[in-house]
Amino acid sequence: MDYRELDGGREFVARLEHGGDWRAQIERFAADEGVGAAFFVGLGAVRDAEFYFYDQTEQEYYPEVFDEPLEVAACVGNVSMLDGEPFAHTHAVCSREDGTALAGHLNAGTVFAGELYVREFDAELHREHDDTTDLDLWPL
Amino acid sequence: MDYRELDGGREFVARLEHGGDWRAQIERFAADEGVGAAFFVGLGAVRDAEFYFYDQTEQEYYPEVFDEPLEVAACVGNVSMLDGEPFAHTHAVCSREDGTALAGHLNAGTVFAGELYVREFDAELHREHDDTTDLDLWPL
Amino acid sequence: MDYRELDGGREFVARLEHGGDWRAQIERFAADEGVGAAFFVGLGAVRDAEFYFYDQTEQEYYPEVFDEPLEVAACVGNVSMLDGEPFAHTHAVCSREDGTALAGHLNAGTVFAGELYVREFDAELHREHDDTTDLDLWPL
């Protein structure tokens, strides 16, 4: 695998705003603070969630929308630059009232409550188009 | 979203004790070590799990108990102060023998085995009642 | 619980190689870089996944193979030494096209794409056989 050693930057804890979008808030924070490379983990709850499932053969994203309250049992993601703007690549595992889990690439979700730990790196990571997967990945 | 930059404190790796409670052990550790702000991630297995699902309309927690052996595929949480004591807000994704996942706010679970990484911050975070959600959240 | 305070070491971000094995790549990286203690989190997608479910009564691992494309919604694990080699204890939560989640101890999985954050510690952790669980755990 390709990897890069990075120097640690700032560390943040955050409380996502009730009623706002989970991913958009992380991106606005990153833009405001000038975060160009970070990983984050988090937990909380959403009122709804839109996952994107990537069809590895068709190489297209297909949305899967759950318009119901869900716990966010685990959120793992990162921030890097895409087309000149911070992009929060966000995956999440959510759960229903009966405990069953739904998970994937979280495109959007209306926050009920959310808590994040953001580990910034003293670097800027850039996503570029990767021909093999048709995804925007890091050339490390 | 509201956020705060924090200075990093100590870092710990931990092995949860077989037969003890997953969350209570984290809180005892935090009390013993004087940890007033931290995030943690972990993995392992439990003999049983009690999740709390938060009804966003009723604003009440409802327990969902699974009295069966489960893998802990992912655990994400944090430590902060609630009513003068360290509280470990703990979410987890568990799985059954057939691989299907159960997830949510982990109130309790009897540890079979567990491994944690704890990132302390050089600060004390306090939870206070939030009227909108009826949850105890951080005023950052 | 048993725990140890560790000094932080290097920090890495990584891009897993398309077509390679998820866990084996982490172990090769750890061997190449001399990483003897670390925690990691990650996200991505795999073409297939083999989970090991540990039967807590029989104290045996049973494989559960999913030969289908899956998102990796959350991956949490650590690196420590087992029999003189770096071992990547890797748990993951995956999801199918309909959003339903599968999770557990990830023994193997063919990477479609993957991104990791690795937090090394300035230490070497060793796994040793634990009689109670019949697992290889850390004596901390």
From TrEMBL, chains A, B, C:
PROSITE patterns the UniProt entry points to: PPC
Provenance organism: Halosegnis marinus
Gene Ontology molecular function, alphabetical: DNA binding
UniProt key word tRNA processing: no
Superkingdom classification of source: Archaea
UniProt protein name: PPC domain-containing DNA-binding protein
The entry's keywords: DNA-binding
Domain PPC: 6-140
